[in-house]
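FIELD: query
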Amino acid sequence: MRNNLILLCLLILGEFQSIFSQTQYTFKRLTMTDGMVSNYIVDVIQDKQGYIWMASESGLCKFDGKDFTIYNTGNSAIKSNAHNVLYYNEADNTVWVGTQRDGVCIFNCETQTFTNLAGMMTEDVTDLSPSSDGGIWITHYHLGIDYYSNQTKQITHYKAKDIKGLDFGHFWCAREDKNGHLYAGLQKGGLAVIDIRGLL
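FIELD: result
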């Protein structure tokens, strides 16, 4: 009986080994020698057309699976080369580029043009994330978090000094859950949980 059990285990292990040996993974590394804008990539997204967008501290890069298109201050109307974060806004088919010191540059995928988002509380954008109602949370390193409405195209400021418990630290990121809370990652203050029910 024991010999039969050992034989069965060996057969099962052999089958697993056969399955795993048939699975092969191929990894390819793309760099500036392939046409990328930089070897230091800080964020990656995909738009509905299937293009891959990469943010760097040297400009913006679009990849179609074969070729790279580079957007920087030298060849386009993008406002900055120093980027922190990307966001694809499906509501109007645009790519949002959050920059380190120059706000948000918006690339319209239909017209292939850049515009700048006006009316934010600061120009130092560290994160862009979706809200439950289809809007966009814009996190600023200083001062707080903005909310952009895709319906009204208006920006609402949520300044740290006006929200109890947020009047310290700097902001790196923010994510909304399904229960009416916004989680803000702080530089030194840990994680702040903001009750946004009734705010939107």
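FIELD: remark
The chain has a mean pLDDT of 88.
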